[in-house]
Amino acid sequence: VSGVAITGVGMHPFGRFDGVSTTDMGVAAVRAALREAGVGKGGFQAAFCGTAYGGVATGHKVLSRLGMTGMPIVDVEAGCASGGAALMLAAAAIRAGQYDTVVVFGTEKMPKGIIRSSFFEPWQEEAGLAATPAFFGLRAQRLCLASGVTKDHLARVVVKNRRHGKANPDAMYQKETTVEEVLASRVVCEPLHLFMLCSPNEGAAALVLRRADLPSPSVNVTPIPVTLAAAVLRSHIPGPVLSESTPLAGLSHDEVPAPTTLAATDAYEEAGVGPSDLDVVECQDTDAARELLSCEELGLCEPGGSAALLSSGATALGGRLPVNPSGGLLSKGEPLGASALGQVVELVRQLRGECGPRQVEGARVALSHTVGRGANAGVVILKR
Amino acid sequence: MRVMVRDGLFTDAEEPALLGSQCAACGSVHFPRAEACTYCATEDPDPVELSGSGTLWAWTAVTAPPPGYQGEVPYGVGVVELPEGVRVITRLTESDPGALAAGQPMALRVVTLHRDDDGNDVVTYAFAPAPS
Fold this sequence. Notes:
The complex is a heterodimer.
Chain A lengths: L3 E12 L6 H16 L8 E5 L7 H8 L7 E4 L5 H14 L5 E9 L12 H5 L5 H16 L3 H15 L13 H6 L2 E3 L2 E2 L8 E10 L14 E9 L14 E3 L7 H13 L8 E3 L5 H10 L8 H6 L16 H5 L3 H17 L12 E8 L3 E8 L1
Parallel strand pairs in A: 2-3, 2-4, 10-11
Antiparallel strand pairs in A: 1-7, 1-8, 4-7, 5-6, 8-12, 11-12
Chain B lengths: L1 E3 L14 E4 L6 E2 L15 E4 L3 E10 L12 E8 L3 E7 L12 E11 L5 E9 L3
Parallel strand pairs in B: 1-9, 7-9
Antiparallel strand pairs in B: 2-3, 2-4, 5-6, 5-8, 6-7, 8-9
């Protein structure tokens, strides 16, 4: 069984771009990734496109514009983990020997405001139970009760990620903020203030995957090779009432592992590494509490230890294990179908040492994590 | 006239109840009623009425109207733990998070959401603080 290498990456920045279509952004990201990998027409045998709001044949529209069709093109929807799902399918096909080279991309233009999700039934909307920030707020409150997290900690997650995002030209917000400014922003759903929530937005990200035992066709200076060591997607096991499966009821105990923990456990095993081997992490930070909970669910600290991990400075750039050096979704915003692959693009660049002021020095093992409605949890591990 | 936001979720009575189901094989309780057990997949769980009293496990308030919602803001949303071993996502009658505390007793109510185009009051289930 061959390993899988990532030989090219490309991004369309995340933000709001009036007059730029979902297809336009996908074209920009895919073109950049193909160029970096030295792959042209006929150079790949399949394409997987992650998108949640893109509509019919989003992937086909992108590749048609580039004049590259004929191979299977599959759109993949798995909420916030759509890109992770696309990556899992592509990597498995290469490992199975089905393809040598596969393009994986995600592109998205989110509606503005609170996300309207077809996941909910009309009566849930009418009853006020389709309010995504309320679920985030409830989960944040339970984290505060269970892990000693305070509003000050939540504000410090935002300050950290926005400081990281200042050095990311692909981020929506490239301006630092302060604890005072975060806490002065309006309360959306206690304990979460506006600045503690990511903005749904627009963007695209693309990767070229290739059998690791084949030489790269790139005529450019060959980038430092990065190996895709694991790409895992898991759904939920029922029980936790506030899990991303978003049920109307759950069990009165906390013994059922979260989907993120299920995916991470499988990914660590597949990659042959553990949390202590990681050098850099990009994790789901759709709200500030979600980053802390992600740290716990990924095993980056003990359960209940995320506030202490944050306060130690370990997860800031320069710390032992920087989390969200890209600025995270709190700085970049969240285009659902592109967010997971955006993390992977960042981590490939981190492992190659291309990240300038936000570079994690000497990074060799990296983890990407997304989790979304369904539930869908995606964990990707990269090595150089 | 009063119409339920969705039939089959609760009884609109003086002492209302949530309509759940219980698995004959594993004993787990579901809300809303399930066609197969959420936890062990055994089909046709038994219909049960859930306890109208519970304790508060999590709570917040929604301050801006979410998509598709026509009622007033702010309104409370929370999780109430019932004696059957179930945690239920629910509206709360209290919209000030500062007025609520973990573990406090809560009681089921039926509340009006809004009046629809035909002049009917649309009602749903909610939990209210109860005397301890």
